[in-house]
Specification:
alpha+beta, four-stranded antiparallel sheet, 316 residues, elongated, 4 strands
């Protein structure tokens, strides 16, 4: 039994070694074919890289836009107008109650006196306001939501909860512009993915046409191999590796193009953010993003090559 197990294991190792050798030979043949036609290979890889770079760049810009929109809670502050019945000595306890809420990040209290002074300085009617017999402004509390409260739905839910508090007379929040921004981002996401699917189809057609031309050039060689007993799997391997190399090299250059575009946008974007007093910087492709782009490129190459060689072998 032990001897049979060793023999079986030895056969499996030999079979695996033979399979790896065949794949290595097929990969070497595919690289040789690409090197033998440098101009055609460069043009094909260049077109593939541009087709993959466009949706990758747009998706990365959308990712930056989504990251930037996460800071909307800093500009989506809620204004709570306290009731006249709320005494000044009751305000600290109410502020502590708000700070204890995990959905609230910051709380700022503006007394009626401070509000009148600020309004007088901003409006320019200081002399007129000083003649008023009493201060008409209520006490105000500015509430800044937590970082996870940034969608219009969650902001509306929080402001409705604060509006029901007994100390609050009125709560205001303008989320209309936030709704518009999220709708624009959602529409842009759908458009970018649609563009990506169309360009992925273009990559399939490009690689399929390249493999078809290569197959036509080596038709006599394939027929001779067939006469010597070569299987379709043996003939198919070099073409599949050619598609794999074309897709992978095109994806690698696409990543490089995206990096260069983001690098070129970094300085003007930083200047724009300084005008808005923000320190947000553009995000470069991560290792996961690069791996995903390369995987998509290689997969499209293999699929395009497989479809083309399958149709060619059927005709043969």
């Amino acid at each position: 039994v032990a001897r049979d197990s060793r023999m079986k294991l030895l056969k499996q190792k030999r079979s695996l070694r033979k399979t790896l050798t065949l794949h290595a030979q097929a990969f070497k043949v595919s690289l040789t074919r690409l090197v033998q036609a440098p101009l055609a290979s460069i043009l094909t890889i260049g077109v593939i890289s541009i087709a993959l770079a466009l949706p990758s760049l747009f998706l990365l810009l959308l990712k930056n836009a989504n990251e930037l929109s996460h800071g909307l809670n800093q500009s989506s502050q809620m204004t709570l107008y306290l009731k006249k019945q709320v005494q000044p000595n009751q305000v600290p306890a109410f502020i502590n109650q708000l700070k204890a809420d995990p959905e609230i990040s910051q709380v700022k209290y503006i007394s009626p006196q401070q509000g009148l002074v600020d309004f007088a300085e901003q409006s320019g009617y200081k002399n007129i306001l000083s003649a008023l017999p009493y201060n008409p402004l209520p006490a105000v509390i500015i509430v800044t939501p937590s970082i996870n409260i940034n969608s219009p739905q969650s902001l509306n839910k929080l402001v409705n909860q604060l509006r029901l508090l007994p100390e609050v007379a009125q709560a205001e929040l303008d989320v209309q512009w936030i709704r518009r921004l999220y709708a624009i981002l959602k529409l842009a996401t759908v458009l970018v993915w649609s563009l990506g699917l169309l360009l992925a189809l273009a990559v399939l057609l490009i690689i399929g046409n390249t493999i078809r031309l290569t197959l036509r050039e080596r038709l006599e060689e394939i027929r001779i191999n067939k006469l010597f007993g070569a299987t379709n799997s043996f003939i198919r391997k070099p073409f599949l590796y050619t598609g794999f190399c074309l897709g992978l090299f095109g994806a690698a250059i696409a990543v490089l193009l995206v990096e260069l575009v983001i690098l070129g946008l970094q300085k003007p974007f930083a200047h724009l953010m300084q005008l808005y007093q923000s320190y947000f910087q553009l995000i470069y492709p991560t290792a996961i993003d690069i791996s995903f782009i390369c995987l998509i490129g290689a997969a499209l190459g293999v699929i395009g090559a497989w479809l083309s060689i399958r149709a060619g072998l059927r005709r043969l």
